[in-house]
Write a structure and sequence with these properties.
alpha+beta; five-stranded antiparallel β-sheet; single chain; 213 residues
């Protein structure tokens, strides 16, 4: 998965909030008619930014994007299982309004992701432990522990932890996408490379690894 560069005030390149492409951005001011001076003047707090790729606008007020109102967090991974996407996107749409509600939705998405990865989805702590044994970096478990997802005090998916902070919610977006990259996208990419090998090479590899029946 490519690095995500969220929209940032006055930055000349970032991932467009509309098309998602990492593209050049053009910043412009709004002008308003000043009847007192009978001329146009810059409306300084209000600006707009045009994506050079899709040509769509985002509107900024006093250095903060106000339209679209989608939070500046990574979009759902392109390989995210469909059953997780709706919860992820809903969390993305409300995280700036309620980080606790967003965290609850992300926990639910994580539970569904565990099922999609072959785990039972009943105990995220155990599920993540199983994935670590299968090769998932142990740092992911440590990060989820920090977010109170896998420790004994973590709430169940779909429930709200009253002490959730925006930082925890924002971290969860990245963690979920990382798990998908590590457990789904990377193996798919490696498999796509393997199937392109000549049959003689594939048979030699399978024989070496004891897979030739």
């Amino acid at each position: 998965m490519q690095n995500y560069h969220p929209p940032e005030y006055k930055k000349l390149q970032f991932n467009c909030i509309h098309c998602g492409v990492y593209s050049s951005q053009s910043w412009q001011n709004f002008y308003c008619w000043n009847r007192l001076h009978a001329g146009y003047s810059i409306h300084k707090p209000l600006e707009f930014c045009v994506c050079e790729h899709c040509k769509k606008w985002s509107y900024w007020y006093d250095g903060r994007m106000i339209v679209p109102s989608v939070a500046l967090v990574p979009p759902a991974h392109t390989d995210m299982p469909l059953e997780c996407v709706a919860d992820y996107n809903e969390a993305r749409g409300i995280v700036d309004l309620s980080s606790r509600a967003a965290s609850a939705l992300l926990r639910l998405a994580l539970q569904k992701l565990m099922i999609a990865l072959g785990e039972n989805g009943k105990n995220i702590n155990e599920n993540i432990g199983n994935l670590v044994e299968k090769g998932l970096p142990v740092e992911v478990r440590q990060a989820l522990d920090f977010c109170r997802i896998v420790d004994n005090n973590a709430v169940h998916p779909g429930e709200i932890e009253i002490n959730d902070t925006p930082e925890i919610a924002y971290n969860l977006f990245n963690i979920i996408n990382f798990i998908i990259e590590d457990r789904i996208s990377r193996p798919m990419h490696i498999q796509s490379l393997f199937v392109q090998l000549p049959e003689s090479v594939k048979k030699a590899v399978e024989k070496r690894d004891g897979l030739d029946t």
